Amino acid sequence: MPKLKKSQLAGVNIHWRLYPFEDFLDGQAALGLKNIELWAGSPHFLLGREGFQDCAPVKEAASRRGLDIPVLLCESVTYPFTLCCSVPEVWEKGLSYFKNAVLAAKALGAGIVVVSCAGGLYDKGKELAVSRAVEALKIICKAAEEQGVVIAVETLTPDQSFVINTLPELRQLLAEVNSPAVKACLDICAMRTAGETIDQWFEALGSDIVHIHFTDGRPAGRLVWGEGLHPLDEYLEKLSKWGYEGCLGLDINVRGNWFDPALVDEKKGFTGASHVPQNYWFCPKAADEANVNALSAYLEG
Fold first, then answer.
1. For residue range 124-172, what is the model confidence (pLDDT) as tens digits?
2. What pLDDT shows up at residue 282?
3. What is the DSSP string of the chain?
4. What is residue 31's predicted lDDT score, i.e. its pLDDT?
5. pLDDT for 274
6. Under a CB-based contact definition with an 8 Å cutoff, are residues 29 and 61 in contact?
7. Which value, to the nearest 10 degrees, does the dihedral of the CA atoms of residues 128, 156, 143, 136 take?
């Protein structure tokens, strides 16, 4: 069975946000990576509802280091706009933000924009939050279709959002949006938190899985590989079996080690949402080096 390739790895800059963007690029190039997934957050990239920064210098800076930008990670969980906002005027203004993410992706040469369904309020209920996401995606996907860009929706762990946490919920969302420009992003930590498997995801969605956030976890946390509980060799073998050819976004979170011992049950899998913070990484360069070193043994090239 052919192995996945190192060229499929894509470094993500979200944990470099307190360092210069150029340092992030230098770090990825030094590790021999060929792709980055650009987290479109300040101060690395300015994206708003009224526009976005000039993409040419960003693209050129990456290219000068031998890096492509196939994926734009649109911040849609904590700020500034979310797909599921229950405040009508804020939700409407947010549509321009997500449309601009599509336009920025096109300008950067990225064919994929990753988004999440967050921002719903508990007192308003899940039904309203989901309907907001569906309505927003139906509007935004028109811009994506025109630009030849695909929107990839990922599930989230319950501590991040209560809206779309499971594979069945994502399948229903995609069916309701019903656009060739809206596909799926598989987040390994969210998958494992929901008690799901890679086989289940590919059996259900197949080639509609266009991107993967590939990190270790306990079960969540988006940790460096080797710091969590996920079976790295098994997961890579499964992805090879399914012929996955997209990027593996290394969307690690160096803020802490999220772990609740009560979640560890081999018979049931790792399920649940609670976490206990145990800080362990403060250097993004060291985190990336450890992550890529752990993965390289299982990859070609």
1. 889 999 999 999 999 999 999 999 999 999 999 998 999 999 999 999 9
2. 56
3. -PPPBGGGEEEE-GGGTTS-HHHHHHHHHHTT--EEEEE--TTT--B-SS-B--HHHHHHHHHHTT-EEEEEE---SSSS--TT-SSHHHHHHHHHHHHHHHHHHHHHT--EEEEE-----GGG-HHHHHHHHHHHHHHHHHHHHHHT-EEEEE---TTT-SSS-SHHHHHHHHHHH--TTEEEEEEHHHHHHTT--HHHHHHHHGGGEEEEE--B-SSSS-BPTTSSS--HHHHHHHHHHTT--S-EEE---TT-----GGG--TTT-S-------------HHHHHHHHHHHHHTTSB-
4. 98
5. 44
6. no
7. 10
- 1 confidence band (pLDDT: 50, 70, 90): low
Total length of the chain: 301
Query: If you compute the radius of gyration of the chain from its CA atoms, what whole number of angstroms results?
Result: 18
- Report d(CA 266, CA 268) in Å as an integer: 6
Considering the segment(s) 6-296 as one domain, its CATH architecture is Alpha-Beta Barrel (3.20)
- The tokens describing 226, both together, are 């080797």
Q: Where along the chain do its domains lie?
A: 6-296
Q: Is the pLDDT of residue 262 over 60?
A: no
Please, which residues have CB within 8 angstroms of residue 264's CB and are 6 or more apart in sequence? Answer: 218, 229, 270
Contact 126, 117 (CB under 8 A): no
